Amino acid sequence: PKSSAMARHNELGKAGEDFAASYLEHTGYGIIERDWRQGSRDIDIVARTEDGTTVVFVEVKTRSSDAIVRPEDAVDARKIRNLGRAADAYVKERAIWNELRFDLINIVGTAPENFRLEHIIDAFNPLLV
Prior knowledge:
Blueprint: H1 2-26, E1 30-38, E2 41-48, E3 54-63, H2 71-74, H3 77-94, E4 99-108, E5 116-120
Parallel strand pairs: 3-4
Antiparallel strand pairs: 1-2, 2-3, 4-5
């Protein structure tokens, strides 16, 4: 049935986000918020750089298959625009004045034991889309 495949997909996505958040914490980022939502807009992870100067909006993409997908294919222009709108709403709601950055974390694997993570810093700029 399709629903169990969807449940597995959602579980993999959740495991990937947990893995990404853990990775960010271990590399000195502070996690501000996870799964922030406002209406249909959502942000996977909002973090702060180690020096505290930059708020980073992190999009996490988790895939079970090893097919290499370029970040620009994983996150299309529409998704980038939506992330930009979500970040704009978040910044206004939280009155944030920091520098902003958009990162992408790609995770490939079927479980945390075999996840491979790629962190692309400053992966895209919603203002340029």
